[in-house]
Amino acid sequence: MTAELTAWSDFNVAIVGAAAALAGLVIVAASVNIREVIRATTVTARLGASIVALVVALSIAAVGLVPALDTVAYGAVTVVLTLIAAIFQIHAARVIVRTPPPGDDTRPPAAKAVIGFVPIAAYAVAGIALLLGHPAGLYAAAIAALLTIASALLVSWIALVEVLR
Asked: Any residues with CB less than 8 A from the CB of 147 and at least 6 apart, and which?
């Protein structure tokens, strides 16, 4: 682990723990109303993308703890994991846009889909910056991790409330 990554080790340990705990809680919370969650395809897609985003945040932070890892390799891993998260978020966005909203929901479907892309975009910036050798990518990765947690919590809350409407 380079000196730059070593400086972030406490933060990465905290993110690993937080992301793991939140991913588990989202899964448990969804399982309480699993029949309703499965029936609502948009909810299933959104929760799936949120869980994947949390696992990606956990994985990126865990990789940041690997000994002898340099920031360019960390950037490469960040880009690859970001692409995986993007695949799930694109699927969720397509499901949201293609599914008619419930009767009283007037929010544009695109607005519902955008929130999941915010942390992915931040991780993409982080990965590219790190690949280019710019240490600001570590700050972008930290911001992306925090955005992932906030986004996943928000989407999970909304999804779990929507199934009970």
From this structure: 118, 119, 122
